[in-house]
């Protein structure tokens, strides 16, 4: 039987039918209190689409399904264990002599009524029938106006986030089981991160899960969606998060331009390289302008653009409703998506101008993903990016502890010409060190933009979100002077080195800030005050440990220690392949044990030159000056870790 189904699925049936899936029985999931997730959501969508079909007299292009049984329990088991299923279906069942009298259950933000479990299973079945129609090529694509939504479900022991069963996750597993579909993309544009979907497929190398969502540095529900989460064992780079971090005091919310930029610079190229056989859209419209929960400004054209682009990559597209809580806006955006699935012509704005928060979010994810997705480093995409950054590089170094113009999550730093040149040519394809730069970029803080008139750069503020943390600025290298500097300058730097055992350790402290359990400064030293305070190996070890025990933690932050060790080890490995030397650069470490975050970056690039420019060691094959200091730092961190 399975072989027959597979052969049938391979038949080239010419169809122009778009499916529309809806059902009045979805209304039987309802709350006794006012709630954003209510039957009016799908009622509004269904009426809007029906009115459109009637007015255009194009019902022949559309086939509708509106009656569904409950899905087979084995289909639920593709994602859920029996315990979870029993929990959902047993909430209103009598147990022995104990009679259930309640009509509603509220589990945090999620309600269930007596008919919710049945309705949720009918919702799953509706989506699965959409899968059947598309993969047997009866339909070219489909839109599912279904509820309750599902993308938050799948990793917790009970329903959450308004969700009961994860419709799209079950659909993907069903498609693979029944039709032997190999590569599947789940594209989630809901304003909330798809934490359930991510968890279900985190170690699945054949399912590419993409989420573009509001993040706000983990403070926006559900707090997940970190761009660093790239996939689990054997599935690295198959999980892609684009998280908007919006400063609501100074920034506008991302909208059409930002979604288009994210798709064209990042998501579209990755999906093309992945080569999907089937695409499922988690179509949440709480990312639309006017939604009371999302407060983001995507538009109907934004959803149409993404739908069109996805359909061009793989015509087999199933769009499944997730969130969306402004009834009129949600209905209009759902109609826009449906129109695009039908192939209704649509003109899109030619010129876009993404916001800084949009550019920053996309750049962050590009940096995390480009190691695997080679398409992201193509000449065309780099040039496309430059249109919006000006003469921008992907990343740029962060700053010292000295004064900058700080604007929340950004820093504006005025640089010297040599440092500015290093930054401005990081992604210049004509730069003879272009390939080296691509290996170095991930160690540097992120560039937002820069201004050659003022010789200033705008970059990420590495302390943003870690304001209560302790900070350590380590100048790396036995020598921190330029080979061609004056004799007076060389003498001055050598004197500094002698005063703090830099000649033995290969590093010295450029600045240090230690904060207590309330985030108050207890130590704040810079420049000569810092290296006079920390003048030998024992003191260096002690103060580094204090940084990792920031906020008077009983033990050093092990996660931060291990992360910093890994970072520096990887930097050493890369530097061993580099044909340049770096003088007077620094490692910046920030540990905030109140927010349980840490940060480490390589910063400051005033003196970057060819290895052969070192008149003291012109035949060196690698920059042992800085590598020696980094290795020493690794050994110190390992000693602290092993205590």
From TrEMBL:
Protein localization: Nucleus
Main subcellular localisation:
nucleus
**Coiled-coil parts of chain:** none
Q: Which GO terms describe its molecular function?
A: histone deacetylase activity, hydrolytic mechanism; kinase activity
Enumerate the Pfam families for this protein: Hist_deacetyl, IPK
Instruction: Cite the entry's keywords alphabetically.
Output: Chromatin regulator, Hydrolase, Nucleus, Repressor, Transcription, Transcription regulation
Asked whether the UniProt record includes Transcription regulation among its keywords, one would answer yes
Query: One GO CC annotation, please?
Result: histone deacetylase complex
**Domain Histone deacetylase residue range list:** 35-340
Q: Which GO terms describe its biological process?
A: epigenetic regulation of gene expression; inositol phosphate biosynthetic process
| Record EC number | 3.5.1.98
What is the protein's given name?
histone deacetylase
For this protein's source organism, the top of the classification is: Eukaryota, Sar, Alveolata, Ciliophora, Intramacronucleata
